[in-house]
Amino acid sequence: MNAIAISQPRHCSDEEWALRVQLAHCYHLVDFFGWTETIFNHISARLPGPAHHYLVNPFGLNYSEVTPANLLKVDLDGNKLEDSPHDANPAGFALHSAVHGARDDIHCLIHTHTTPISAVVQKKHGFGHDDFYGAQLYGRIGYHEFEGITLFAEEKARMIASLGDKHILVLRNHGIAVGESSIAKAFFLLWTVQRAAEIQCAAGALGGEDNPLPEEISQKCADLTAMLIRESGFAVKFFDAMVRKMHATRGPSW
């Protein structure tokens, strides 16, 4: 893959540029792991400040084509705040603007619907908590009934109510959205959800009876994982290691 020469624009602060670089890396990682839905889905990162402005991908580009410079800066209504030849995917505004407008503790939101995730959220029971990764999600998921493609502002309040104080929103019959206080934490949460879905699908395809975990063990796993992410540099170490792995395989992203 040929690297693209990208430099920081003069008008862009160091803080915003660092966020842009990390968000672009996140897009490339989602592509690297095969979790993309071609040019669809979205990852957003809230910019510092009281205005709830956020960065999101230009619609029509592959995730591997996203760079720090071509990310769009938008407001909660999806209006572009800087000139760009690209537009954003309107299906992303209802979800991302709703969460960024309502949850000050969520600075990065990632929406995917990989095959394993879509299969799990198709099921009435949703995510189980009897495997190593599923146990880490115990008590951390809100469920939202499918209302069609998320285009309309009138669904925002219902999505936020479904999310509550959780950090994982299952969009039933659709996909998931995970949100955290940083890009690295959100990516690690996405990885955990993806692994839980993969294992649940594989276990469901096997014969034989599952070995259920007691609820107190699942709760212990979820609490411990949340503490590790919140109070240590665990997520940053994981994110940086995955970027190095990607670059060792593909070369520099830009």
UniProtKB/TrEMBL annotation:
Q: Signal peptide span per the entry?
A: none
> Which enzyme type, at the first EC level?
lyase
Q: Where is the Class II aldolase/adducin N-terminal domain?
A: 21-201
Q: Which GO terms describe its molecular function?
A: actin filament binding; methylthioribulose 1-phosphate dehydratase activity
The EC designation for this entry is 4.2.1.109
Pfam hit, one = Aldolase_II
Q: An example of a Gene Ontology BP annotation on this entry?
A: monosaccharide metabolic process
* Keywords tagged on the record: Lyase
The yes or no answer to whether the keyword Lyase is present is yes
Q: What do the Gene Ontology cellular component annotations say?
A: cytoskeleton
Q: Which PANTHER family match?
A: ADDUCIN, PROTEIN HU-LI TAI SHAO
Family note: Belongs to the aldolase class II family.
- The entry's protein name is Methylthioribulose-1-phosphate dehydratase
Task: Please state the gene responsible for encoding this protein.
Answer: mtnB_1
